[in-house]
C-alpha cells in the first residue's frame, strides 16, 4: 500500500502542471453533473412518501349546457356543486376541498403592524390526509367544519412572528376585524413540490393560516382562485358557487391503492346520476390520478431542467475525454522509462497497475475538488430566479455518488492511455 501511495505522490510531482489541469477538468465536470443531479432529485421527490399511492386527485367532465367537451384535457378543478356532492358522499376514506386565499393578520401590537398572510380554506380531513405534523395542538373538528367555527391552524413561522416563544395554541388571533382561536401550530411541513396546489406554483411559499371552508364563506372571505369559466359575460366572482366555472380543488384518500377502480366507478356513476337529473348531457368522462401521476401530468419537472442535466452529463463526458488526452501525453513522455521497466522484466499488468496507482491520487484529488465545486455550484443555483432552485436539497447519497463518479471518471480516463502505452514494444520504446 505504501509503495502505491509513493507512486501516486511521485506521479503527481513528476508532471504537476498536467496533474493540476486534469484535477480541475474532472472536478468541474463532476460539480456540473452532481449539482444538476440534485436539482432533478428535488424536482422528482415524493412529497407524500407514506401515502402518495393512496391519495388521489379526481377530475370530472362537467358536461353542462353551454360548455364544450374537454376531451382528454379535463379541468383540474371541480364546479362547486360537484365538489360539495363528492365531499358529502360516502365513497373515500378522507376528502377535502382546497381554496387558496389571503387574510390580514392584526398582531397584538395594533392594526398599524398588520400584514397579509397566505391562507388555505379546507376541512379538518386535510391535515390527516396530507400527514401534516403539529408542533402543538391539532386540527379543528368535523363539527367546526359544519358550524363554521372561528378556529384556525397556523404555521410555526406565523406563530413565532406573532406570539414569540409562547405556545400559540388557545390564543386569539385577529384576522381583519374577526377574532379566531388557534387550535394548532404546524410543525416542520413544507412539501416540495406543493402537489395539492400546482395552480399557484409547485415551489411557491406555503400557507400560513388554515381555516374551515364554511367559516371563510360565512365571513365572505373571497378565495384567490383562477376559475375556468364558460358562457357569455364575466362570472360573478363573489358568487362563484352559482357561476358556470370550475374552481374548487378536490382530493380524496382511499383505504388502499387497490380501491382506485371502485372510486373511478363511483365517479362514473355520479356523472350518470347528474345526467339523469338533467344537469349533465354527455357521457361520463372521469380521471383519477395519484400524487406521482398528478405531478407527471402537470410536468412539474421543467424541460429546461432536463435539458440542463443532459448538458451537464455531456459536459462530464467531454471532461473525461480531455483528461484522457492529457494523460496520454503524460504517459507518452515517459515511454523510455516505461520501456526500461518492461525490458527489465516487468509485465504489462504490473506497468498498467503502476500507472493506475499514480493516477489514483488524481482521482482522490478530483473527488475532493468536485465536492467543493458542487457546494459552490449549488450556492450559485440557489440565486437563480426559478423557484425550484431555492428548494434544492443536499443529499448525502448524492454527494457520495459524486465522489464515486469523480474516482471512476479519473480511472476511466486513465484506462485507454495506459493500455495504449503498455502495448508498445519495450525495445522500440527505449529508442523513442
Number of helices: 14
Biggest beta sheet summary: 6 strands, mixed, barrel
User: Helix/strand-derived class?
Assistant: alpha+beta
Q: How many DSSP E strands?
A: 12
SSE string, helices as H and strands as E = HHEHEEHEHEHEEEHEEEHEHHHHHH
Indicate the mean pLDDT.
84
Shape: elongated
Low-confidence stretches: none
Task: Give the DSSP E fraction (strand runs of 2 or more residues).
Answer: 15-25%
Please render the helix and strand layout as text:
Blueprint: H1 2-14, H2 16-43, E1 55-60, H3 80-88, E2 94-106, E3 115-122, H4 125-129, E4 134-137, H5 142-147, E5 151-154, H6 156-163, E6 172-175, E7 178-186, E8 209-212, H7 213-218, E9 228-229, E10 245-246, E11 249-253, H8 260-276, E12 286-290, H9 291-297, H10 303-332, H11 335-343, H12 348-381, H13 396-422, H14 426-431
Parallel strand pairs: 3-8, 5-7
Antiparallel strand pairs: 1-11, 1-12, 2-3, 2-6, 2-11, 4-7, 5-8, 6-7, 9-10
Amino acid at each position: 500500500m505504501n509503495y502505491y501511495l509513493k507512486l501516486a505522490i511521485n506521479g503527481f510531482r513528476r508532471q504537476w502542471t498536467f496533474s493540476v489541469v486534469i484535477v480541475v477538468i474532472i472536478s468541474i465536470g463532476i460539480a456540473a453533473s452532481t449539482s444538476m443531479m440534485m436539482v432533478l432529485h428535488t424536482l422528482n421527490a415524493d412529497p407524500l412518501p407514506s401515502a402518495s399511492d393512496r391519495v388521489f386527485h379526481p377530475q370530472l367532465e362537467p358536461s353542462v349546457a353551454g360548455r364544450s367537451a374537454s376531451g382528454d384535457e379535463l379541468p383540474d378543478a371541480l364546479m362547486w356543486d360537484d365538489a360539495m356532492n363528492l365531499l358529502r358522499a360516502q365513497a373515500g376514506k378522507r376528502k377535502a376541498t382546497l381554496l387558496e386565499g389571503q387574510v390580514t393578520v392584526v398582531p397584538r401590537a395594533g392594526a398599524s403592524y398588520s400584514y397579509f398572510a397566505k391562507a388555505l380554506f379546507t376541512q379538518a380531513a386535510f391535515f390527516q390526509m396530507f400527514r401534516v405534523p403539529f408542533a402543538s395542538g391539532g386540527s379543528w373538528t368535523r363539527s367546526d367544519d359544519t358550524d363554521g367555527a372561528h378556529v384556525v391552524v397556523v404555521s410555526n413561522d406565523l406563530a413565532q412572528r406573532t406570539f414569540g416563544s409562547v405556545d400559540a395554541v388557545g390564543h386569539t388571533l385577529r384576522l381583519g376585524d374577526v377574532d379566531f382561536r388557534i387550535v394548532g401550530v404546524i410543525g416542520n411541513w413544507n412539501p416540495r413540490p406543493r402537489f395539492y396546489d400546482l395552480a399557484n406554483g409547485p415551489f411557491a411559499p406555503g400557507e400560513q393560516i388554515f381555516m374551515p371552508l364554511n367559516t371563510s364563506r360565512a365571513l365572505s372571505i373571497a378565495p384567490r382562485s383562477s376559475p375556468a369559466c364558460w358562457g357569455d359575460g364575466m362570472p360573478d366572482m363573489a358568487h362563484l358557487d352559482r357561476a358556470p366555472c370550475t374552481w374548487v380543488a378536490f382530493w380524496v384518500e382511499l383505504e388502499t391503492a387497490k380501491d382506485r377502480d371502485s372510486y373511478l366507478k363511483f365517479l362514473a356513476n355520479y356523472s350518470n346520476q347528474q345526467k339523469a337529473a338533467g344537469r349533465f348531457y354527455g357521457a361520463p368522462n372521469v380521471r383519477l390520478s395519484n400524487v406521482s401521476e398528478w405531478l407527471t401530468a402537470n410536468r412539474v419537472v421543467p424541460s429546461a431542467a432536463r435539458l440542463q442535466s443532459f448538458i451537464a452529463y455531456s459536459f462530464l463526458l467531454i471532461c473525461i475525454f480531455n483528461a484522457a488526452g492529457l494523460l496520454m501525453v503524460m504517459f507518452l513522455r515517459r515511454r523510455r522509462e516505461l520501456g526500461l521497466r518492461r525490458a527489465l522484466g516487468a509485465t504489462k499488468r504490473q506497468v498498467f497497475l503502476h500507472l493506475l496507482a499514480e493516477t489514483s491520487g488524481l482521482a482522490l484529488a478530483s473527488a475532493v475538488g468536485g465536492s467543493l465545486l458542487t457546494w459552490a455550484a449549488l450556492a450559485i443555483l440557489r440565486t437563480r430566479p426559478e423557484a425550484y432552485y431555492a428548494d434544492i436539497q443536499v443529499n448525502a447519497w448524492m454527494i457520495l455518488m459524486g465522489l464515486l463518479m469523480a474516482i471512476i471518471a479519473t480511472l476511466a480516463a486513465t484506462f485507454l492511455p495506459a493500455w495504449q502505452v503498455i502495448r508498445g514494444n519495450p525495445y522500440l520504446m527505449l529508442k523513442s
